[in-house]
Design goal:
Elements lengths: L7 H7 L8 E5 L4 H14 L4 E4 L11 E3 L2 E2 L2 H18 L5 H16 L3 E5 L17 E6 L7 H4 L3 H8 L9 E3 L5 H14 L3 E3 L4 E2 L23 E9 L2 E9 L5 H19 L7 H9 L8 E7 L2 E8 L4 H15 L8 E9 L8 H8 L9 E8 L16 H11 L4 E4 L6 H13 L2 E6 L1 H11 L3
Parallel strand pairs: 1-5, 1-6, 2-5, 6-7, 7-8, 13-17, 14-15, 14-17, 15-16
Antiparallel strand pairs: 2-3, 3-4, 9-10, 10-11, 12-13
Helix pairs in contact: 2-8, 2-9, 3-4, 6-7, 10-11, 11-12
């Protein structure tokens, strides 16, 4: 199904649905959801009322629009959605579903008169529906890690994609750039910023801190009762009382990449504080906001009961090669790395991917399989392959057939035991969970966020 990337339609309707809230606008290939969650948590800790818009939604349409950290209630959503759809019909603008959703989020924030809105770009940037927000509203724009994704719409090179995503920058307003894997991203963004009169700020990543036994919980080794990892000590480079220095924090989001996201979020806060000095974005607010942040479905641990027996699952929406590599590194460092000295360990995967050419299942799965354990550790691999629920109103989103993924898994890990379910959800996921529970060991559920959503829906009832 084709997608018409244009702001013409939504701009016409936006003229009749005013939006005036101060806004932080975040784009990127990987990490923008985490950055928006960290940013929103800090702003809430600074006693500001905060609206947050993320896409796609996780469990229901309501959770992609949050007011002060809580999903919008159904009554408010439906009332404002009807307002937007009525305006769309009366003006004949024929907006897409995502355009209608974007305007619904903006109108909800406008009606609530939030102090600040944190808006995540859907796809790309320059022509994304969220870029309808006026220059006057945008306080700070930000760009997370850029990689190859959605090439059919954004370009076939990382440089071309970076230019599209940097298109959210606004003249005279800071654009904060997070750490990048590809050096050509920095060059492309610099050119866009210089041409557009956009002040560019390059964020400094956070770094691991030292464990303080009086403050920090000690990570437990892997065992049958392993329930996840505690918040970790980190340090961020920020200004406190007029002095720039490394400041220690406790950070509950896992993975080395989250240090980049945290550094970007705190840099966004520094830029926002300069534009809004009346906001109390203090070092304490930053520490409190970082410590309390939550972002489900991104390297998050969950312990659920399967047939009366507890199972700990690492859940992550690793949907492209870059995010799959991030997950693989975490499994290697933080899970298998805890098995040093052991002879053998079992790793189970429950995987479901979307069909998204030119990206192939092999490109994504080869970053994840086989898992990388310490020297001398024998890793037995079991892989359950399932479809995900078709998201409502998005007919272009389809799952990769589990049988196709099975062929790729057998090629990447010839000795892997595999399980395929072609049942609809939640039956497919229930079958996969029982299968991996019988195997024992570490379990990782990954791939499309739509599969992650299926897991959370199921977890609510088990």
């Amino acid at each position: 199904m084709s997608i018409d990337l244009s702001l013409d339609r939504i701009r016409l309707l936006a003229e009749h649905l005013p939006y005036t809230r101060p806004t932080i606008h975040i784009a990127g290939t990987n990490g923008k959801g985490s950055v928006s969650a960290i940013t929103s948590s800090i702003l809430s800790a600074a006693r500001l009322s905060v609206g947050r818009f993320n896409s796609p939604h996780l469990v229901s349409i309501y959770d992609c629009i949050a007011l002060n950290g809580k999903p919008v209630d159904a009554e408010t959503y439906n009332r404002v959605r009807q307002e937007v759809e009525t305006a769309n019909a009366s003006h004949g603008t024929r907006l897409s579903n995502f355009e209608l959703l974007t305007l619904t989020a903006l109108r909800i924030f406008e009606h609530a008169a939030v102090d600040v809105a944190v808006i995540e770009v859907g796809m790309g940037g320059r022509l994304d529906a969220t870029n309808v927000i006026s220059d006057d509203c945008v306080l700070v724009s930000a760009l997370c890690a850029v990689d190859l994704d959605h090439q059919a719409f954004l370009g076939n090179t990382v440089e071309a994609i970076a230019r599209e995503k940097a298109g959210i920058g606004r003249r005279g307003k800071p654009l904060v750039l997070g750490r990048q894997k590809h050096p050509e991203v920095l060059d492309a963004v610099k050119e866009v910023a210089e041409a557009g009169g956009i002040p560019l700020i390059v964020a400094r990543s956070a770094r691991e801190g030292g464990w303080n036994r009086e403050v920090d919980a000690t990570p437990s080794p892997l065992s049958d009762d392993f329930a996840g990892l505690p918040p970790r000590p980190v340090e961020v480079y920020m200004c406190d009382m007029g002095t720039w220095d490394w400041v220690p924090l406790q950070f509950p989001l896992h993975g080395a990449h989250q240090l980049d996201n945290l550094g970007l979020a705190t840099a966004i806060m520094s830029a926002a504080r300069e534009r809004k000095p009346e906001w109390s974005i203090t070092a304490q607010a930053i520490a409190d906001g970082v410590r309390s942040v939550s972002w489900p479905g991104r390297l998050s641990f969950h312990r659920i009961a399967i047939d009366g027996k507890k199972l700990t699952i690492l859940v992550d929406g690793a949907h492209n090669p870059a995010s799959a590599e991030t997950l693989a590194q975490f499994v290697a460092d933080e899970l298998l790395g805890r098995c040093r000295g052991a002879e053998r360990v079992t790793v189970n995967y429950i995987l479901g991917l979307s069909h998204s050419p030119p990206k192939t299942p092999k490109q994504t799965l080869s970053a994840l399989l086989p898992p990388r354990g310490p020297d001398g550790l024998q890793v037995d691999v079991n892989v359950a392959l399932v479809p995900f629920t078709q998201p409502e109103g998005m007919p272009w989103v389809v799952h990769t057939p589990p049988e196709v993924m099975q062929e790729v898994v057998k090629e990447l890990v010839p000795g892997a035991d595999t399980f395929v379910s072609t049942e609809s959800q939640p039956e497919a996921l229930q079958q996969a969970l029982r299968w991996v529970r019988a195997k024992g060991g570490i379990t990782v559920l990954a791939g499309s966020l739509y599969l992650v959503a299926d897991f959370y829906r199921l977890a609510q009832h088990v």
